[in-house]
Amino acid sequence: MAIADDAFETGPDPDHPGWNQWNLRDETLFNTAVLGRLIVRREDERCRLRMFPQRRHENLQGMVHGAATQGLIDIALFATLHTLGRSDAGPSVTLEISTQFIGGGDPNRPLDAVSEVMRETGRLLFVRGTVEQDDDIVAAYSGIVRKLPPR
């Protein structure tokens, strides 16, 4: 099924000047239902996708659950594709993600996935990045996205 052009809210975020929204309009789908509201901005040749952890994102140790961090990373690949790569790509798919968890995420601070495009071909986007909270690194990652043509 193709994702309609109006499936996302991508305009300026009214609560965070300098940031744009990165949310599916259908809040019952994974992005918003699991991770909550997301915001994005371009920083030179990098894309920064931010989530705001909530109690539901915590594990038994009171840290951000690795699955929530991994979900943020997956969505960051697509935010990067559309923010830094080919914005005319249609619905695309994750081919691979490699993640190295370095530290625990603090559920009381925003969690940012900061990504850069390493290479882009006609059909593939190679991305790497880190998940950060201020100066703390939570994870490092790389991923490959298969771009599909717009429908």
Keywords:
single chain, 151 residues, alpha+beta, 2 helices, 9 strands
Structure commentary:
The chain has 151 residues and is an alpha+beta fold. It has a single domain (5-146), classed as Hotdog Thioesterase (Thiol Ester Dehydrase, Chain A, Roll). The protein contains two helices and nine strands, in the order E-E-E-H-E-E-H-E-E-E-E. A hairpin with a 2-residue loop joins strand 8 (124-133) and strand 9. The termini are close together.
Short description, anyone?
With 151 residues, this protein is of the alpha+beta class.
Shape: globular
Q: How many distinct beta strands?
A: 9
CATH homology superfamily name = Hotdog Thioesterase
Low-confidence segments = none
CATH architecture, by name, is: Roll
- Write the CATH fold name: Thiol Ester Dehydrase, Chain A
Radius of gyration: 15 Å
Helix content: 10-25%
Largest sheet: 7 strands, antiparallel
Overall mean pLDDT stands at 92
CATH class division: Alpha Beta
Pattern of helices and strands = EEEHEEHEEEE
Alpha carbon gap, first and last residue: 9 Å
Total number of helical segments? 2
| Largest sheet, spatial ordering of strands | 2-4-5-7-8-9-6
Relative strand content: 35-45%
- Structural class computed from helices and strand pairing: alpha+beta
Number of domains: 1
List the helices and strands and how they pair.
Blueprint: E1 8-9, E2 20-21, E3 23-24, H1 30-35, E4 38-43, E5 46-51, H2 66-84, E6 93-101, E7 111-120, E8 124-133, E9 136-146
Antiparallel strand pairs: 1-3, 2-4, 4-5, 5-7, 6-9, 7-8, 8-9
